[in-house]
């Protein structure tokens, strides 16, 4: 895979190459460097309009993904599903014009609050000065965003409570949890893929306590014989047998 870096201004856009996981599901793998905070983005390809799962962690990241979609000949997204409201999953949304943004209702208020903040590199520095625990997250944001011109945090335009089935058969299901109250998983039944976002992870680093651990009980509850692939946003995809061995062994 060509792991392009965010491009600035009017320079050429780097291309990320998607890889097909199973059936209609294609992945743009994230950055393995945890300090980059760049998650995997999935596309469920469909001629009626693809479903994009998470927006990318910045407009630059989203532009790379859009270029990769075009290069691979995959249908343009019609829907953008947020697995949850954290910045690395939603900050690319403003670079996806014309899509319907789908998210759990619990994510609306925090995203509206984020949208009202005066984002800039200066603001990020000021926030870290006042709360040093924000340092890793906010430094990653500063590196991710090449320009604040036209940047906006976008709440969902379509919300749901427990479950939503999109016209392409993709199922979005709320699971909640300690990482984010709006965490949702995305099931692609015909491809045997469950996209987990960050749902079973502990809380974000700046909110984490020494007692916080991954939610293995939640992860075990998501195991199903109808699912062959499990995709967490910051880990490599694993098959059902591997997931069972890791969680029940």
TrEMBL record:
InterPro entries xrefs: Metallo-B-lactamas, NDM-1-like, RibonucZ/Hydroxyglut_hydro
Domain named Metallo-beta-lactamase: residues: 38-234
Top-level taxon: Bacteria
Protein name: Glyoxylase, beta-lactamase superfamily II
Organism: Micromonospora narathiwatensis
């Amino acid at each position: 895979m060509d792991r392009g870096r965010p491009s600035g201004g009017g320079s050429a856009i780097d291309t990320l190459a998607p890889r097909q996981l199973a059936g209609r599901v294609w992945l743009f793998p994230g950055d393995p460097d945890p300090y980059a905070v760049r998650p995997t983005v999935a596309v469920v390809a469909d001629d009626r309009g693809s479903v994009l799962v998470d927006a990318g962690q910045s407009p630059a990241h989203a532009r790379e993904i859009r270029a990769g979609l075009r290069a691979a000949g995959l249908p343009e997204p019609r829907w953008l599903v947020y697995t949850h409201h954290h910045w690395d999953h939603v900050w690319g949304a403003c670079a996806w014009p014309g899509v319907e943004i789908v998210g759990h209702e619990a994510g609306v208020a925090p995203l509206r609050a984020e949208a009202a903040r005066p984002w800039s590199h200066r603001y990020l520095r000021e926030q870290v000065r006042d709360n040093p625990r924000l340092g890793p997250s906010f430094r990653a944001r500063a590196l991710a965003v090449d320009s604040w011109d036209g940047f906006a945090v976008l709440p969902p335009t379509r919300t749901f409570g427990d479950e939503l089935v999109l016209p392409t058969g993709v199922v979005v299901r709320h699971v909640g949890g300690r990482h984010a109250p709006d965490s949702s998983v995305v099931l692609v039944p015909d491809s045997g893929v469950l996209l987990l976002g960050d749902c079973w992870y502990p809380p974000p680093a700046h909110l984490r306590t020494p007692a916080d651990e991954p939610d293995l009980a939640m992860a075990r509850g998501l195991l199903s014989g109808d699912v062959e692939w499990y995709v967490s946003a910051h880990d490599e995809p694993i098959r059902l047998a591997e997931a069972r061995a890791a969680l029940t062994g």
